[in-house]
């Protein structure tokens, strides 16, 4: 009985170590800071508005904010036409045993980027759901 308990404890520790390793590997695979948009702020917003004009709506509560225009949106500094969006969903991106962190996943028809992620929405499922529903509303309205 003690042997079984020890083996299950070791297996659990190995599982946790593997999960931490995979999470670090995923974070290291993120694009370098110079390729990522600034963490929100006025400079980022001013650059987007200067380039594309005043949006119909934007979501300032996420970083970087999402901007909505007539036929496209700006997600993470990238222009994404509504007609290219196949699906919008959200999920818990955390690994087991860690605090949840939600993300929105936008599936597209673009060959170079099949999925666009809006990450680090925090631990509120309501925020993730609201962001996904807002994006879906614009996609549905413009397609």
Polypeptide structure, described:
There is one protein chain. With 143 residues, this protein is of the alpha+beta class. 39% of the residues lie in helices and 23% in strands. The chain has 3 helices and 7 strands. The protein has helices at residues 2-28, 41-52, 125-141, and strands at 57-59, 66-68, 72-75, 78-81, 85-92, 102-108, 115-118. The chain has a 4-stranded antiparallel sheet, with helices on one face. Strands 5-6-7 form a 3-stranded antiparallel sheet, covered by helices on one side. The radius of gyration is 19 Å and the shape is elongated. The model is unreliable at 29-37 (pLDDT under 50).
Shape: elongated
Please report the total strand number as a whole number: 7
Order of helices and strands: HHEEEEEEEH
- Unreliable stretches covering 5 or more consecutive residues: 29-37
The portion of residues forming beta strands comes to 15-25%
User: How many angstroms does the end-to-end distance come to?
Assistant: 62 Å
Q: How many helical elements?
A: 3
Average pLDDT confidence is 82
Which class do the helix and strand fractions yield? alpha+beta
**Alpha-carbon Rg, integer:** 19 Å
Q: Order of strands across the biggest sheet?
A: 1-2-3-4
Largest sheet: 4 strands, antiparallel
Measured as a percent range, the helix fraction is: 25-40%
How is this fold's topology laid out?
Elements: H1 2-28, H2 41-52, E1 57-59, E2 66-68, E3 72-75, E4 78-81, E5 85-92, E6 102-108, E7 115-118, H3 125-141
Antiparallel strand pairs: 1-2, 2-3, 3-4, 5-6, 6-7
């Amino acid at each position: 009985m003690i042997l079984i308990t020890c083996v299950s404890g070791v297996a659990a520790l190995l599982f946790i170590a593997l999960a931490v390793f995979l999470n670090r590997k995923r974070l290291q695979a993120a694009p370098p800071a110079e390729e990522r948009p600034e963490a929100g702020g006025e400079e980022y917003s001013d650059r987007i508005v200067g380039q594309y004009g005043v949006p119909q709506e934007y979501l300032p509560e996420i970083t970087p904010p999402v901007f909505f225009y007539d036929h496209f949106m700006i997600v993470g500094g990238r222009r994404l036409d509504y007609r290219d969006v196949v699906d919008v969903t959200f999920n818990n991106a955390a690994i087991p045993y860690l605090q949840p962190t939600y993300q929105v996943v936008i599936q597209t028809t673009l060959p170079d980027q099949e999925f666009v992620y809006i990450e680090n929405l925090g631990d509120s499922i309501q925020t993730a759901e609201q962001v996904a529903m807002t994006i879906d509303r614009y996609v549905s309205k413009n397609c």
